Amino acid sequence: MNAGTVLKQFYDAVIQRDMVNARSYLDDRMTFVGLFETYPNADAYMPPSLSS
Amino acid sequence: MSIVTRLDVKVIVGESDSAAIFMEMVTTDPAPATTLVAEWHKTRNGKIVWATSAFDARPFAAMFAGPHDVAADERAIRGLKDTFCKALLSGDGKLRASIWAEDGTVAPPQGGLFQGRSAMAKHFESERASITRDSSATFTDYRFRFINRDTAFVDATLELRNVVGPDGNVAPRVPIAITFTAVRKDGAWHIQDERAHFSIPAAA
């Protein structure tokens, strides 16, 4: 699956507030470098409380 | 961000292990805005392994600012009027006009409307003859309402004493009601628009 498809499916899930599905597109060790904050892993970026 | 109420995806572009998304992010209080967000994502084995985002953060600046120091801003605005009084009594029209924003306006109590520091200074210079050696000017009864951190609506009373009136006589006391907006630009407060009226004593 190419990066564009992964991203589309991730955001489709986010917009539908299906965080369990959205979380499945994140590698556990992913890093998100935001303007205000950097999240060092998927659980920091998307806390388990959102996707459970 | 928990203040995000909606994401409106505009386009997603993918190439190899990279993808970019452009979307509008709609946020609510304390930063209500619609902001174009660009994100660059890298994927591996069907999962996002790295991402970064960029957007115009100005609508969110207030979320990271410290508490509004209202007392300090009130002092700064009162300071403008202290300068006004000093300049009035010394006959320095340019100094008096300098407390206004460049495009500010003033409607003095005797009538007329002057816009811009140059026009105000010229008018203020014409008032120099009304000041005597015994003249005084005092602002009291300030009331402030901050519309936001950088804009305040203010009213106050200016009391002039021992000034020469249009009839050539010295008036012992002239109360004037002053209403103005003050704005902060580049960290400095100025008067934006001021309207002044001779106060009419309340009926006994």
Molecular structure report:
The complex is a heterodimer of chains A (52) and B (204). Chain A is α+β, with helices and mostly antiparallel strands. Chain A has one domain. In chain A, 42% of the residues lie in helices and 19% in strands. Chain A contains three helices and two strands, in the order ααββα. The model of chain A has no long low-confidence stretch (mean pLDDT 92). In chain B, 20% of the residues lie in helices and 54% in strands. In chain B, strands 5, 6, 7, 8, 9, 10 and 11 form a seven-stranded mixed sheet that branches. A four-stranded antiparallel sheet of chain B has the order 1-2-3-4, with no helix packed on it. In chain B, a hairpin with a 5-residue loop joins β8 and β9. Chain B starts with a strand and ends in a 6-residue tail after the last strand. The model of chain B has no long low-confidence stretch (mean pLDDT 93). The interface between A and B is medium-sized, with 23 and 30 residues.
Q: What attributes does this structure have?
A:
heterodimer, A: 52 residues, alpha+beta, two-stranded antiparallel sheet, 3 helices, 2 strands, 42% helix, globular, B: 204 residues, Nuclear Transport Factor 2, Chain: A, 7-stranded mixed β-sheet, 4-stranded antiparallel β-sheet, 4 helices, 11 strands, 20% helix, elongated
Poorly predicted runs of chain A: none
**CATH architecture identity of the largest domain in chain B:** Roll
Structural class label of chain A: alpha+beta
In total, how many beta strands of chain B? 11
Largest sheet of chain A: 2 strands, antiparallel
Biggest interface found:
A-B, 23 and 30 residues
Radius of gyration of chain B: 26 Å
Q: Radius of gyration of chain A, Cα only, in angstroms? A: 11 Å
Shape of chain A: globular
Give the distance, in angstroms, between the N- and C-terminal Cα atoms of chain A: 25 Å
**Helix count, DSSP H or I runs of 4 or more residues of chain B:** 4
The string of secondary-structure elements of chain A, in order, is HHEEH
Please state roughly what percent of the residues of chain A sit in beta strands, choosing from under 5%, 5-15%, 15-25%, 25-35%, 35-45% or over 45%: 15-25%
Q: Could you give the order of strands across the largest sheet of chain A? A: 1-2
Helix share bin of chain A: 40-55%
CATH class of the largest domain in chain B: Alpha Beta
Number of helices of chain A: 3
Which strand-content bin applies to the residues of chain B?
over 45%
Total beta-strand segments of chain A: 2
